[in-house]
Design a protein that fits this description.
This protein is of the alpha+beta class and 334 residues long. It has three domains: 11-169, Conserved hypothetical protein from pyrococcus furiosus pfu- 392566-001, ParB domain (Alpha-Beta Complex), CATH 3.90.1530; 216-277; 285-329, no CATH class. The chain has helices at 11-22, 52-57, 95-108, 130-138, 155-169, 174-186, 193-199, 204-211, 218-225, 233-246, 248-261, 265-277, 317-329, and strands spanning 47-48, 74-78, 82-83, 114-118, 124-128, 143-148, 285-292, 295-302, 307-313. A hairpin with a 4-residue loop joins strand 8 and strand 9. The chain is elongated and about 115 Å long. It starts with 10 loop residues before the first helix and ends in a 5-residue tail after the last helix.
Length: 334
Amino acid sequence: MVSFKKKLVAPERVIAVESAASSAPIVGDPRIGAPVANADAEPIAIVPLQAKSQVLSQIGSSQDPAGSYQVGTVYEVPVSQVKSNPYNPRAVYTVSAVDDMARSMSSGGQKVSATAYVDDDGDVVLIEGETRLRGARAGGLPTLRVEIRPRPASDRALYEEARAANVERRDQSPLDDAIKWKELIAKKVYPTQVALAKALNLGEDHVSRTISLAQLPHRIIHAVAENPELLTHKMLNAIREFWEVKGDDDTLELILEAAKSGMGYRDVAARRKAAAKGPVKRPRSTREILTFRGAKGEFKSFEEDGRIELILNGLTPEVAQEIQSKILALFPKE
């Protein structure tokens, strides 16, 4: 059990710590940590889980935080000292999701501990819990509750442990997988799509179709991510195929319409097929009105497909036979 000596802290010091925790960015590269308010200040002590008032009363302890962690123990770690998972399986964080988490943590406290390991420098590195970290920053909370786990054996193991936790909570979307899988293959964490599919126990076709979503532009990705009901494989692939035909602006309008009206993926697919066909193109033609021996009709010529049509109504049998003979005479038998 780690013990700490209580030390009185000036109110200005507490305000500085809270300011440092709240000023970290909540969008962009998740590996960017919170800035430190005063580089010359004493290190903030890492303490086991307890009331926040007790945590703040212990800020300023001179104990070395690097030696304070034990695997299996839950700690209240200052937000500024928590690093994001460099292989975080989540790629898309919407402003609304982070704001919702900030409100929840501010009003009801952190319900589930994040998990993390301690790296060679003694830093706390998340395994999973990035949304909670961003929520804590956005809400100006001083600490994040973290359970210390054994350090994963490799980058691949770190990613797979974090993704498994997200899948279990149903927090992992196909968009997250698409972007991260493309990145992991580019970084050679997995040498090929086949290796990735095997490691995650997924079908190769499933992996290939998912990665194809990564070609969507960022503004399309963020627009669809704001509507969780659209985040299914079938819907996302239908949206991608529509985007390939119609481009960004029409796809953004489609996403808004789909979210508002409850369109299904079949509706989106039908829109894509209609867009691919375009307007029906009618062949150009010329038309002439004819009269012949009291009969009336018309003659049509279709230029594009080399077709002609002749219609005459009101002919006597004798005249009809005469015209037929003259037309057939134009086409001698071979």
